[in-house]
From TrEMBL, chains A, B, C:
Organism: Dasyornis broadbenti
Gene label: Rhcg
UniProt keyword terms in alphabetical order: Ammonia transport, Cell membrane, Glycoprotein, Membrane, Transmembrane, Transmembrane helix, Transport
Highest taxon above the source species: Eukaryota
Keyword Cell membrane listed: yes
Gene Ontology MF annotations: ammonium channel activity
One GO cellular component term: apical plasma membrane
Keyword Metal-binding: no
Protein name, UniProt field: RHCG protein
């Protein structure tokens, strides 16, 4: 049985031809572009046997696959289960959360392989890919998942695919500016992924402001079991974040260090989040929204500095602060953003990604500026910041300045890009739902008739009971 | 409180002595057979220190454990959480889905270690096992989990254990014929796991045809949260499938390549599945059944060719096609199979495993037949197809022919084996439930009294309310 | 809407100032202590390049990160998702199960890094950490998660933090006595983690005995979906247990062997658990409590011996026995412990950890005593038991004696420590709930108003319906 809709609903949310058209068009484009451009890199191609000899490698274990594949899989889980389930907290939007996240990420990783490939892995007219490209594609899509959090429940799947197309493009440009032109370090993506993704998403949701959104207010909350589903997402993000921040760091100590710094930061973040969640409530009760989100801020906030010599206690400090900032954000900033700035941020990405992302960029700049040969060792110092070639004269303080510039560039790209893409998404052709149908899976999904829903009808006399 | 049953129910589903008897008998058999046959392989045994010297290995990292253990764990998750939760979509069969899958897989891996060991790891009267054997045992059990999908909700746990015993045996024989006699490549098991497992299961469910199954039709659907539980299974299968297809490939480039081809195929598959799921519904709404299942067809369809030079765009094409075929299958073929051929396929394994498995076998045959020394490199060519010893004169086109023969053998083994095993399972001694009690955990499990079930009774006047 | 409480409730469970105070105080203490003591170890520090040369390592792959990080992540998942979700089986305590487990583990790993660091990684006034320390910290916290299982639903978060502080301390002392003074092998922690953790928790819950706990009996059960959430925990513990038992074993064969022995033991355990679960019920139905818990006993019971030459069939035997003992425990011992000994063991840790832990210690002692140079090889024998330095004259039978002594020490530490900590937790200042409010998230958490809860009220006339 179909739930009846309000008579006043004029919007056409039928996806029947539009969604297939977009999906198929884009998949065909991917096939063509992959056919023209994408090939296996030297460690993936069957010529590897010859490659090994040329590179003087004695063992297959030296293949980058063994250095990075376990981390890749952890990152992959974060993108699809982590972000997907984190957003299932809404009582009637679990299909959309996990399903649309699946859709946009599956498209995004293909497009990101191309975009990032043209910038970073382009040789003799071909993009040569390996496991590191897969990780970077997942990273890029991570920034789209973040932006999705701001508009969760308010957009059609087509809008999400359009946003993904543009955001992946802009992400890749921004990343190129930061990593290649500014020669900035950002292995865990505090700037490129979190700051950019979050402010991009916030700008988009500002442009898509819905004045009547309180019409679906009853659906913006959670139910008991939806909060438990969301905790699956939270915990997988939390547990695998050390893999996220270390996945593309240099082999050896850098990967090892990134993982440990992140582990420490996240552990500290849980305690300060719990403390402030309880403190900011009159009855001292813990709020699942904070536990699901603010506990992760510690991972965001060491995204730039984790591979540097941040040290374990430095990580604890950064994690502690970010947990506090994020929890305070949920209690005070989110209502303010909505009522004053008309920024409707469904998942509170301003608290989980935007502010901790900025903290991460700043901590990275400071940590870089404070680097010394004494702390890193002579070789370690050069390796850690890649002070070779044209950059061999860079000093730590100059590097710190460039790191700071990276934050500014990411912010500007996010605001400008978000404004343009928000404008495109505002066109009345994409099939988004009316305000009273937001946060409701029934609009885009075949939803099973639950026994509970009978009860729901009983208590809602304005809806007819099922036969 | 016990739910009342129909008075006409004559079947005895009490497992009290039968299930313990079967479990204990078989576990004792496993202990005896392991005691006689199974020993640690050279990389597992404490003599490894001496082994290392003999093999001129300088580092412990050369132990196969470090090449394959992360992939093994991913495969392990696929078998137990992936398949287990994928099948929890039914509203009242979650315990059976995840619990019986757990039971049959735990028995199956033990029996598979023996069966596959006798065929592939038998030296001086002993089966020498290592991490690769564990992966292969999980693979073998995967084919049983697939067959379980066809008969889900309609069989007793004893029937599942009996089926596992026979199916593992037949799987191992079929695998031996393909890999050793036909010298076929099938690292991800399109033929040995998916084609064989699916057609075996479909034959079994055909033999076990229940004409009155519509009596339990109300229980064959999902509820909102059961669909979310199923998505946990879907996503873990989807994310870890690159590990599945690469887990037993050769060290180095082959593992790397298998993972990347699979990643590409799966990404494309999601887009075409979404497109066709929307297109085939009048209202254009997405159907969770398709998203939960057809998105995975891309992994099945590159199971044979992933370790070959399929190339990224080749993978996108295969993945795109398999998503379409699988979704169309759910909409059109499944009802046809049920109404015309009396094949009651609970999970739709025909769409997720059988047809994509055939595609996988065919793509593998074509990719092998099209191989050239130019594309693979001289050494890579020999290594990829293991054209050594008696096989050194094999040409790609002959290999393609043998690959095709592998499909046929797998099909024949599946039909013949499924018919025999289906006949055995039809004996009236195994304690399966009557048609009106299918898809209902209450038959074999202690089920907690949910508050919702009170409501259920209120709305079903033919069932007495709880006191 | 707030659920009304019984008028007679006098206990103040408001956490508003107490919980933040404890969290912040302890996090500040962690930051100060980490600042003074904790530094990166040689494989984590940026000086690694120089270290590599000194150690004559030719490749970054020799960094311990690549030997242990995948196992670390598996263990991490076990602690946070495994234990966390395993305990969500209660119908209204899912937030507390997964949330408090998150809190205590996040604090515990920080304190464990310090405590274990002082005992095992202290050099020149600094604790030098690496990935192995992270694993050990997770292990240590595992013993706290076990103890949490006994008192689940009956304590405030502050009590859990206090318990964690003391238990981690005592764990580290006990571990030091066993590993360093007695020179005992216990890589998977049958004695140090399971025996110690379980008897510690059982002693604490005995001291905290609540005579009126039957007042919350209606909340001590599960609902259908809470049992499925718990199965997520079960399966992740089951699947990753091979990683748990092998995570800190020696590189090479020892890690490989630990994983395989554990895999075998767990597989066998599932069959005997299912057999006895069915056999011990009049109607032969399987009980989810057994499947969720007793299937894991096989991992506990080979915790000491997995890295030894237990052999695959030995593992099957140990796993089979532990599944039987654990299931029988749930049916007969748990009610006995509660009614006669006043031990209220919410999760039945006596059956899952205490008894299998003792079995594990005993099997370890026997396996060590039975070791011969013939079985292990000359070098393997010395390496497996670390019979070097002052221990080079130890014989297997003496080692077996020391192993047995390790069990006794662990038990004594658990009883004495549990008694003291239980006494501290009994102080009336920690904000625990009254008996009628146990097993109820509403006490410490903001709980969403479910539609179901309306129904609940309808059927419970003593509770007013929501407006």
């Amino acid at each position: 049985m179909e739930r009846p809709r309000h008579q006043g609903m004029a919007k056409n949310t039928n996806m029947r031809w539009r969604l297939p058209l977009v999906c198929l068009l884009w998949e065909v484009a991917m096939i063509v572009l992959f056919g023209v451009f994408v090939r296996f890199g030297p460690e993936v191609d069957a010529h590897w046997e010859e490659e090994k000899k040329e590179m003087n490698l004695t063992s297959d274990i030296e293949n980058d696959f063994y250095f990075r594949y376990p981390s890749f899989q952890d990152v992959h889980v974060m993108i699809f289960v982590g972000f997907g389930f984190l957003m299932t907290f809404l009582k009637r939007y679990g299909f959309g959360a996990v399903g649309f996240n699946f859709l946009l990420a599956a498209f995004g990783i293909q497009w990101a392989l191309l975009m990032q490939g043209w910038f970073h892995s382009f040789k003799n007219g071909k993009i040569l890919i390996g496991v590191e490209n897969l990780i970077n594609a997942d990273f890029c899509v991570g920034s789209v998942c973040i932006a999705f959090g701001a508009i969760l429940g308010k957009t059609s799947p087509i809008q999400l695919l359009v946003m993904t197309l543009f955001q992946v493009t802009l992400f890749s440009v921004n990343e190129y500016i930061l990593l290649n032109l500014l020669h900035v370090k950002d292995a865990g993506g505090s700037m490129t992924i979190h700051t950019f993704g979050a402010y991009f998403g916030l700008t988009v949701t500002r442009i898509l402001y819905r004045p009547n959104l309180e019409q679906s207010k009853d659906k913006q909350g959670s139910v008991y079991h939806s909060d438990l589903f969301a905790m699956i997402g939270t915990l997988y993000l939390w547990m695998y974040w050390p893999s996220f921040n270390s996945a593309i760091s240099d082999h050896g100590d850098a990967q090892h260090r990134s993982a440990i710094n992140t582990y420490c930061s996240l552990a500290a973040c849980v305690l300060t989040t719990m403390a402030f969640s309880s403190m900011l409530q009159k009855k001292g009760k813990l709020d699942m929204v904070h536990i699901q989100n603010a506990t992760l801020a510690g991972g965001v906030a060491v995204g730039t500095s984790a591979e540097m010599m941040l040290t374990p206690y430095g990580s604890l400090i950064v994690g502690s602060i970010s947990g506090i900032v994020s929890t305070v954000g949920y209690v005070y900033f989110t209502p303010f953003l909505e009522s004053r700035l008309h920024i409707q941020d469904t998942c509170g990405i301003h608290n989980l990604h935007a502010m901790p992302g900025l903290i991460g960029g700043i901590v990275g700049a400071i940590t870089a500026a404070a680097a010394t040969e004494d702390v890193y060792g002579k070789e370690g110092f050069i390796k850690a910041f890649d002070f070779t070639g044209v950059y061999q004269t860079r000093t730590p303080s100059i590097q710190g300045g460039f790191q700071a510039a990276g934050i500014v560039v990411s912010l500007l790209m996010a605001f400008a890009g978000g404004a343009i893409v928000g404008g495109i998404l505002k066109l009345p052709i994409w099939g988004d739902a009316a305000a009273e149908n937001c946060f409701e899976d029934d609009v885009y999904w075949e939803v099973p008739e639950d026994e509970e829903s009978d009860v729901y009808h009983m208590h809602n006399p304005d809806k007819p009971a099922s036969p």
